[in-house]
Amino acid sequence: MQAHQSPITDVFGRPLRDLRISVIDRCNLRCNYCMPKEIFGDDYPFLPEHELLSFEEMTRLVRTFAQLGVEKVRITGGEPLMRKNLDAFIADLTNISGIKDIALTTNAFFLPRQAKRLKAAGLKRVNISLDAIEDDVFKQINGKGVVTLPVLKGIEAAQQAGLEVKVNMVVKKGMNESQILPMARHFKGQDVILRFIEFMDVGNHNGWDFNNVVSKQEIIDTIHQEMPLEKAEENYYGEVASRYQYKDGQGEIGVISSVTDSFCGTCTRLRLSADGKLYTCLFASSGYDIRSKLRAGVADDQLTKSIAELWSLRRDRYSDERSELKRTNRPKIEMSYIGG
Ligand code: SAM
Ligand code: SF4
Ligand code: SF4
User: Fold this and answer.
1) Euclidean distance between CA atoms 10 and 56, whole angstroms
2) How far is the CA of 51 from the centre of ligand 1 (A)?
3) Per-residue pLDDT tens digits for 219-257
4) Considering the domain boundaries, does residue 159 fall inside one?
């Protein structure tokens, strides 16, 4: 069947273009802004195996999404490299008509072992999370006392395997704003795009407070004073990062400003959790259970119809509403469950 038979739009005219799949809710790290170790301890009720969607189920869903307009798939978690046979899953996704881009978000810890296999399976790019370049700061953040070397080795392995690398750093006041410049200095002139992410109020346990947000403008000003920057053009419609290039031609950085400069108006993302729930927004309180439909033997046309209906009714614009001070304190899904 041809892809893009019936591209769909939501209530505000936003097309469905991107899908983020969380393949697992577990992680080897306990970053304090995502899975604080006090909450995600040994007795935390992670999803049992049978509740996870199988890769066959996920592949069937991606085929359906592709028919409705999805072109990009991002694989995330928890830590996606903890799910076995991820490379075979990626290879299956590359064969789906209409899917033009497959990417992975990872903490890179297991990349030295897996980078070559992932590249051979058809993966083109990885986003690697690293919130500090100094060991003492990074150890505090990741909750497991892990130093930066394994992550840096993961970055190197990805580059050697021929994967394009972006590094993502969440910036939170009092946690790691001291690392903005050291990180920029470290990655400048390397073949790596460093992207800063404003600390967001995802989930229910990260103690978010607007006072802990380091704004896009503060980040840019900090770097610009030492290493002059100029604004760069958007690469494509709906790009989440604002791009800035170094004036001396030594590469670029990006800032994802979902708090101080939200971008709901061009949000084309749908999220699939590891247990088969669809979320039309990162800040949603509840998801649409697609797993039970799959396991009840739903026919392809019915599956397509349900997803199209879900998207056509979408009216989420949480971050814009937050900026308009309409934020409500409703419960939200956890970042480690939905994967960012
Ligand atoms: N474990 C993988 C990793 O860390 O890259 C993938 C999952 S992680 C949930 C995906 C991304 O979400 C990471 O870049 C992480 O830093 C980011 N993230 C988690 N909690 C966040 C928060 N409260 N605000 C902003 N970004 C957050
Ligand atoms: Fe794990 Fe990624 Fe969350 Fe850190 S940000 S705890 S690495 S899922
Ligand atoms: Fe998209 Fe929701 Fe984020 Fe807005 S708040 S950009 S609608 S995920």
Assistant:
1) 28
2) 23
3) 999 999 999 999 998 887 767 899 999 999 999 999 999
4) yes
Asked if residue 7 belongs to a domain, the reply is no
- Segments of the chain with pLDDT less than 70: 1-6, 238, 325-330
| Structural domains in the chain (count) | 1
With respect to residue 1, please indicate whether it lies within any of the assigned structural domains: no
Read off the CATH number of the domain in which 51 is found: 3.20.20.70
Residue-number span of the structural domain to which 182 is assigned: 18-338
Q: Does 172 sit in the ligand 2 pocket, CB within 6 Å?
A: no
In a domain? residue 273: yes
Summarize pLDDT for 1-53 with one digit per residue, the tens. 444 455 799 999 999 999 999 999 999 999 999 999 999 999 999 999 999 99
What interhelical angle do 300-312 and 55-67 show, nearest 10? 60
315 CA to centre of ligand 3 in angstroms: 10
